[in-house]
Design brief:
By secondary structure, this protein is mainly α. Helix content is 82%, strand content 0%. It starts with a helix and ends with a helix.
């Protein structure tokens, strides 16, 4: 890797760490850059996953204030997501990518619809639950959210582009919670999924240490930038950012 390629990977890591903390989809920045340096697709994907782990942790730390009082929720959703993330990492090394990639734009599109309609859908769902005597503030969103997080995390362990958009769409609909606090949980869950996939890849997959280290440094810096920017965004603006990034993700994935 030349000096210019190294600088490009480092810059991509900063950008990915920033956007991952605010929304997700940082992989759409780093993955093409790694491919441009000559790395094979699977090696690039594995190296990217390993490198983004420190950035996920950095972003989660930046949102620590919004995590207060959510320990139980994080533990429940995190446990399910760890299982899904490991399953996705195994799928990456055992299945052809074509069949899985076909449905990715559909999943992201569905998540964007949930993000846009989340205030109305969540309010309607809470009214229906209250009328039926249910609890609109279920701490983990019930079986629907746990199942959705399981499959979203499997996708995250497999590739991860717009993984955060899926999380925000699901949690925004099924949790009676402020969007910034949901984003804080998203960052922790993403860190867990990237972490379990990275541990698995360390033992069974090929990766490029130079790329891993450059993305790790860049994403750590970006995680702090993203936390400072993301925490100041009003819910409406944050939803706008999520939708914009999600649309870009769909277009880029369909053109791959």
């Amino acid at each position: 890797m030349s000096i210019w390629e190294s600088l490009a990977v480092l810059a991509a890591g900063i950008g990915a760490g920033t956007i991952n903390t605010i929304v997700g989809s940082g992989t759409l920045i780093t993955f093409p850059v790694l491919l441009a340096t000559g790395l094979p697709p699977v090696t690039a994907n594995v190296s990217n996953t390993l490198g983004l782990v420190p950035g996920s942790l950095s972003g989660a730390f930046g949102y620590r204030k919004e995590l207060r009082g959510q320990r139980g929720r994080v533990l429940r959703l995190g446990a399910v997501s760890l299982v899904g993330g490991l399953a996705g990492a195994i799928l990456l090394l055992t299945l052809p990518s074509d069949s899985f990639d076909t449905i990715v734009p559909v999943l992201i599109g569905l998540a964007l619809v949930l993000v846009v309609l989340q205030p109305r859908l969540a309010a309607a769902l809470r009214r229906r639950q209250e009328a039926a005597g249910g609890d609109p503030g279920h701490p983990d969103g019930g079986p629907a959210l746990l199942t959705g997080m399981l499959f979203s995390s499997a996708y995250g362990g497999y590739f991860g582009a717009a993984q955060g958009v899926l999380y925000l769409g699901l949690m925004g609909l099924l949790l009676h919670e402020d969007l910034q606090r949901i984003n804080a949980v998203k960052n922790v869950v993403a860190a867990l999924v990237n972490g379990i996939a990275a541990v698995f890849f360390l033992f069974v997959a090929d990766f490029d240490w130079t790329a891993v280290l450059l993305i790790a440094v860049g994403s750590t810096i970006g995680g702090q930038i993203g936390a400072k920017v993301g925490r100041r965004l009003p819910p409406t603006v944050l939803r706008g950012v999520i939708v914009t990034v999600g649309i870009v993700a769909i277009v880029q994935l369909m053109l791959r």
